[in-house]
Write a sequence for this structure.
């Protein structure tokens, strides 16, 4: 069985929990407070931005054949940032209006530490898992979101054909890398696949529950969505 | 004003919140459930272990005069791990009995990403802030903990004279580094000082509230301390 | 005085020695054996290729405003590789026909070690010095090379207006970075400026004298140019 | 066949050329000018010093079981530096009296770039190859050097039983690592084994021929040994 297939099967309950997250379901159903979506936009903008140095840090460890694709992803991420900026302007969200949440900060540190410290196949696993998670997650939203929704361009971006092709490409490359490494490294890749999924879930959770740092004012007890609903 | 003095003054409310954290106050007063302390021990053991590669990653960026002190810290950390193992054996805690909590994992990623991506003076700021936080925190515990407590050896380690001298050394070196860099880097150092303090608070919070990953089973809603208290 | 101006002035004799190197003078005068130029092409192709991971490794340390320019340089380098391939095909040179020479290998290690280990302003100094060296060197060749020469496209590339504008941009940015750092780091930048220039001279020297590894067969005693001339 | 055995067999002519290098043979026979040995001492002191950040950069990529041994090597290197200082004082050599030669500088860049960019098993190959080369090389010298020679303590250090045990340990660990990785990585390890050997030969060559930078004053044409012999 291919590595990616085996991993998706192994952590199926976790992956399903991600796809059933209230953020996705409520966005799909048009039931999510605008302020919660805005909170997610601010944090994901910071995350997409931080993905650029992550891609760059992967490149020096990559086989030559991956250099152009990785450079291409950097350009795609820059285009994605423009999408956020265009959507934010359309709905009046200030993308620089909030500092990185604990979860956003932590996830970015995980990307960079992995890119620097781990071999390429392990870091590439994190790239694949994060992109696959986004594709599958927004396909959930796609199944119900009103095409007139101001958030629909995000669906078109991540659930669309171009992104599907990109994720399929990453999947093929990751399966090939997994075949080439030894068993011990393949196990570390499997661990990173699971850890990345847990960070993805934590990210959706942060979008709904609020982005404070644990134990400080604005911590996890002061969810943005809850605050919204109490108004 | 020295850099460290200025920073401690600037983030005083945050620092004070850290020193007033329930984990420390309740440990000092002999009022913390054993299971909560055991939870902290398991996570801090993983953290101290992870500090070894952090120190190693700092060394190639350090001035020559810091090489021996940094190598010395690696040895001190190895000794600290022995302290955990000895205490754990004494009270029947399995140090390998729990996976890294979300906060522990995130904090370790922050250490490694900083060591790799940032210049030395910035990464050294994180080292100082983390060690200073530990020294001050355990001095709070020292003010009341029963010397017969099984946790007293931790107080002796981090609140003791040797550790005080080590923190004072780090402080002097960090102040010197801060004088040598430009204003923009000094501001990034200040940011990292604050961020490290927030990770420290999050760590105490995790010890009390439980170490799950947000949005997954065993997440933040299932605090270890709470579970303990319900028994 | 601006940092770059001061450095070019400080190492003037070294810079002038580089610009007076026989490889440049003889290329300018149409007096260089084809085989020597082919030797340089093979090695510089490997070097340009290796500059891509160098640029990528710089990006995670760069201020945000440099991300797009650095990504742009990666694209420019890919275009430069196409120029080599087109020229090599035109004159029948096999770009993969030779392993990296000692000097080429060493220079590439210097780029990568610097990008990983040093702060951004120091690594950026190496980038500037290498690009400035190329611009000035090929302007020497431009002053005499027959426009019908098969090597003229290299002159157009590195001595041309676009490259001049790129080098001027790097210069302005490096001067700004040099203003922002402390004195100790500025001195390390100055050292790296000089070291890069010495690697550049070593590279021209290798092109003429042959690319062996010292002490092994095909070592420095068996210059390609000399061999050519004996025929 | 074990990996190390296979590699030593594969590059046997290169390894034998290293062991037959004039620097070793003439040192063994008491026939090397003092100034040439002093030149080597100055450069190797810089190299041993630079090996400390190399070891440190390896540690964060190493399996836990290697952390203590690697920290131990850092201590051994510090002790080795004391040996150089003691010998230098005994014979009146100024260890800080010369800048890094081209070859010494290049070799150090190779160590650091490898430690940062490559997976652990590849970087560990460089460590093994360099230490094995030293052990075998000084055993050649051991076979004839007058025990009263001021250089004999170097023989005792690198040709002695403790160092032999250390190299045997590295060999066992490298063979184990080589078994665990995939074929593609094992081939990159083999390449690095060969490249390290070529740097080792270049280092002996530099000691004899002089340490200038190619194409600059004091370049390879002005060997220290030759200068000595002309006196």
């Amino acid at each position: 069985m291919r590595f990616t297939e085996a991993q998706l099967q192994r952590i199926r309950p976790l992956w399903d929990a991600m796809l059933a997250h209230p953020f996705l379901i409520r966005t799909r159903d048009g039931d999510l407070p605008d302020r919660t979506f805005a909170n997610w936009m601010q944090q994901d903008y910071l995350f997409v931005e931080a993905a650029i140095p992550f891609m760059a840090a992967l490149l020096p460890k990559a086989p030559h054949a991956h250099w152009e694709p990785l450079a291409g992803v950097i350009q795609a991420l820059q285009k994605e940032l423009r999408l956020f900026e265009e959507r934010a302007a359309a709905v009046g969200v200030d993308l620089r209006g909030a500092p990185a949440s604990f979860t956003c900060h932590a996830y970015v540190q995980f990307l960079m530490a992995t890119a620097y410290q781990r071999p390429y196949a392990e870091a590439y696993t994190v790239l694949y898992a994060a992109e696959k998670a986004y594709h599958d997650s927004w396909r959930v939203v796609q199944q119900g979101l009103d095409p007139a929704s101001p958030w629909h361009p995000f669906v078109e971006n991540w659930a669309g054909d171009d992104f599907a092709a990109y994720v399929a490409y990453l999947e093929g490359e990751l399966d090939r890398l997994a075949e080439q490494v030894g068993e011990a490294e393949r196990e570390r890749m499997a661990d990173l696949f699971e850890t990345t999924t847990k960070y993805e879930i934590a990210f959706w959770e942060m979008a709904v529950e609020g982005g404070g740092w644990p134990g400080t004012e604005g911590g996890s007890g002061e969810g943005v969505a809850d605050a919204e609903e109490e108004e």
Chain B has eleven helices and no strands. The radius of gyration of chain B is 17 Å. Confidence is low (pLDDT under 50) at residues 219-231 of chain B. The interface with chain C takes residues 60-61, 116-120, 179-185 of chain B (CB under 8 Å).
